[in-house]
Amino acid sequence: MTRWCLLLLLAAVLGEVQVPRYDFKVYHFKSKSRYLRNLRQLESECESRCARDGPQDSIAHLACTRKCESKECYQELYGADELEPGEVDVRARSFRGCVLDSLHRADDS
Questions:
Q1: How far is CA 88 from CA 25, 26, 58, 84, 85, in A?
Q2: What is the DSSP secondary-structure string of 63-107?
């Protein structure tokens, strides 16, 4: 009986805790895209450039790499709320999808 009371109390307390909702534009990332090779090459080049010339802090290094890949996608997904130390990057897949879209648009032009 005591366990059930504790569980009910815990559920009531957790029910009152509001988890902040995080909204961002979702781009679909398909791992079989024909532009995936181009994306991987771009990621590799930007990673090397930022490792050589960029900041050593892991969050700043990631930001440098992503800005190098696509300033527009970075601004759209991270501009208003940049990553913080320890934060799980739930926007990473969407960022890759955005970069793939921009590669696709550039190829169509």
A1: 17, 16, 13, 9, 9
A2: HHHHHHH-HHHHHHHHSSS---TT---TTHHHHHHHHHHHHHHHH
Q: Please list the pLDDT of the chain residue by residue as tens digits (109 residues).
A: 566 555 555 555 555 555 556 678 888 877 777 888 999 999 999 999 999 987 788 999 999 999 999 999 999 999 989 999 888 899 999 999 999 999 888 887 7
- Listed as own residue / partner, the contacts of 23-28 with beta carbons closer than 8 Å and 24 or more positions apart are 24/77, 24/91, 24/94, 25/76, 25/77, 25/94, 25/98, 26/94, 26/97, 27/73, 27/94, 27/95, 27/96, 27/97, 27/98, 27/100, 27/101, 28/97
pTM score: 0.74
